[in-house]
Amino acid sequence: MKASMIIFIVLCGGIAGAIVYLTHSKVPPPPAPPPVVQLPSATTTEPAPTAVAAPAPIRQPAGNGSEETAEPAATSAAGPAVAVMDSDTNSIGKAVDALLAAKNGAQKHELFQKLVQSGQIDEAIAELKQRAADNTNDAEIPTTLGEAQLNKVRALKEAGGDYNEIGILAMQADQSFNAALKIDPQNWEAQFVKSSSQYYWPANPQMDNDVVQHLSGLIDQQETMPSQPEFAQTYVVLGNEYQKIGQPDKAMATWELGAQKFPNDPTLQKKINGQ
């Protein structure tokens, strides 16, 4: 498993079930698309819903039974991966290479920010789509594609973009995560981003039940994997979901269980202290 610095908390997954909310002529518009989940490092507090970031990849065992060895996280958030954007030669290809090779979420976040700010996010999405078509067994590519699409969703929302366009792109992002999970159903990153993002959509009994089940299942999966600091965030988001659906006792129990397993996680500590 590739080591990662988790820096985000929630994207815009589960869009398939919530797309009806995007037809603003019939119903109220959806909430602001949540940030591409920035999973916290040991000292990161719970991110605000306005930050846009992207997760570092959590590599799963390959289809042939082999497993990638862990790599240490980069020491600089903006390291070499961001510098790639300054190249004039095949900059999009190199930027996508850097996204897929990012060793921590901070690098990936910086790359997505630069792509959005430079107006190159569409080119990156097109490049990722082509790579996904050419490499049908690599779950990391559609996962990163979904994150790129959600970064564009966020940018469109902040710019007052058309809700129909936002809805279509959000649906495409959800389909990208589905494609990643079809390749690798145990991919932690794709599961977490897709499931946790549904918290930001309007209350829907079926969707909310799915979120609880998926995140609960992801916690069970984490118990079979080498412990990672980012796993604390599954408890954070599951507790948030319980709170959303009016079950505060279960929310607190979830946060307390997470704090027992990850006593140094600042977000869980704040949750159990009522902050």
* Helix run count: 12
Q: Give the H and E element order.
A: HHHHHHHHHHHH
| Biggest sheet architecture | none
Poorly predicted ranges (pLDDT <50, ≥5 residues)? 1-89
**CATH class category name of the domain at 15-202:** Mainly Alpha
Helix/strand-derived category reads mainly alpha
Q: Estimate percent helicity.
A: 40-55%
Q: Could you tell me the mean pLDDT?
A: 75
Strand % is: under 5%
Strand tally, please?
0
What name does the CATH topology of the domain at 15-202 carry? Serine Threonine Protein Phosphatase 5, Tetratricopeptide repeat
Distance N to C terminus: 33 Å
The CATH homologous superfamily of the domain at 15-202 is named Tetratricopeptide repeat domain
Principal-axis shape: globular
CATH architectural name of the domain at 15-202? Alpha Horseshoe
Alpha-carbon Rg, integer: 18 Å
Give a quick set of tags describing it.
single chain; 275 residues; mainly alpha; Serine Threonine Protein Phosphatase 5, Tetratricopeptide repeat; globular; disordered N terminus
